[in-house]
UniProtKB/TrEMBL annotation:
This is Probable tRNA(His) guanylyltransferase. Keywords: GTP-binding, Magnesium, Metal-binding, Nucleotide-binding, Nucleotidyltransferase, Transferase, tRNA processing. GO terms for biological process: tRNA modification. The lineage of its organism: Eukaryota, Metazoa, Ecdysozoa, Arthropoda, Hexapoda. Gene3D superfamilies: 3.30.70.3000. GO terms for molecular function: GTP binding; magnesium ion binding; tRNA guanylyltransferase activity.
């Protein structure tokens, strides 16, 4: 018994010695880590972008020129990111990309760039895969998608606004071209090369004319999500399901290129007043889920209390 106790003491002492050695002898490797703390007092924009999504969309039979399932999946993955990361004030998505704008004074992960980028990217990517069947049903995921990412810092609210306008302008340019291109291919029976040549050198008016005169497509009547992308905001919402006004992540498709948008959401980036914007648009799937979850949570709490 005495020998066993002696062995235990020696084992403990050996472990303590090894632990101290590991800490003192090997901890120096931490000095090789780069300090990637992002500049304070700046807006952090994390943008993720699908890698080789042109091939990915072909392999998974995406509808051309726009697949509503794919866009809704992107929005839902972004919603999952925003739900878990409270310091994101606005997110904007189109096609296979999404931008997340953090509050100017965020201290999330102590503003460490690598932590921010990898956390947002991994959460988005895993959500995209995890919720695939929710939007694509029996369409089997052939292989895992991947997204690259970057971080950009902007010193002023004006810079951030111009960034968001730039990304939304990109939606219009790309979508108008793609709508005309695929109309020429799918309905006009042109080859992709022929359609590309047909559109080479055309301006927006030319593409609109091709769509309307040749295919009876009024581009202005296309769905807003296709023409403007999706904006995720935290707004005050009320519905018929619950009478109480609640704060919820809301997916909208408004025109950020117009100044009316920024007058309406003047507190979006820099709260200047106590003005609260109430959402009075359609109750989307993302909103419905949040409202129902709140209702279930209240019911569970009332059962526990009783």
């Amino acid at each position: 018994m005495f020998r066993n106790r002696l062995k235990s003491i020696r084992f403990i002492n050996t472990n303590i010695h090894i632990s101290k050695m590991a800490k003192s002898s090997f901890e120096y490797v931490k000095s090789y880590e780069l300090d990637d703390t992002l500049l304070p007092n700046t807006w952090i924009v994390v943008r993720i972008d699908g890698k080789c999504f042109h091939k990915f969309s072909e392999h998974h039979n995406f509808t051309k020129p726009n697949d509503l399932r794919a866009l809704k999946l992107m929005n839902y993955a972004a919603y999952q990111v925003m739900k878990d990361t409270h310091d994101i004030c606005v997110a904007f998505g189109q096609s296979d990309e999404y931008s997340f704008i953090f509050n100017k004074n965020t201290a999330f992960y102590k503003r460490r760039g690598a932590k921010l980028l990898t956390t947002i990217n991994s959460k988005f990517s895993s959500s995209y895969v995890f919720y695939w069947r929710k939007f694509f049903g029996d369409e089997i995921l052939q292989y895992p998608p991947s997204f690259d990412g970057r971080i950009v810092l902007y010193p002023s609210a004006e810079n951030v606004i111009d960034y968001l306008k730039w990304r939304q302008a990109d939606v219009h340019i790309n979508n108008l071209y793609n709508t005309a291109f695929w109309a020429l291919v799918l309905q006009g029976k042109l080859s992709p090369v022929e359609a590309e040549k047909r559109l080479c050198g055309t301006v927006s008016a030319d593409k609109n004319e091709i769509l309307f005169k040749e295919f009876n497509i009024n581009y202005n009547k296309e769905q807003e999500i296709f023409k403007r992308g999706t904006i995720l905001l935290k707004l005050q919402v009320q519905s018929d399901i619950i009478k109480k006004i609640v704060t919820a992540i809301t997916d909208i498709h408004e025109d950020m290129l117009k100044e009316n948008f920024w007058l309406k959401y003047e507190n979006l980036l820099e709260p200047k007043s106590k003005k609260v914007v109430h959402y009075n648009g359609p109750i989307t799937d993302i909103l419905t889920e949040q409202i129902l979850n709140r209702d279930k949570s209240k019911q569970c709490n009332s059962i526990k209390i009783s």
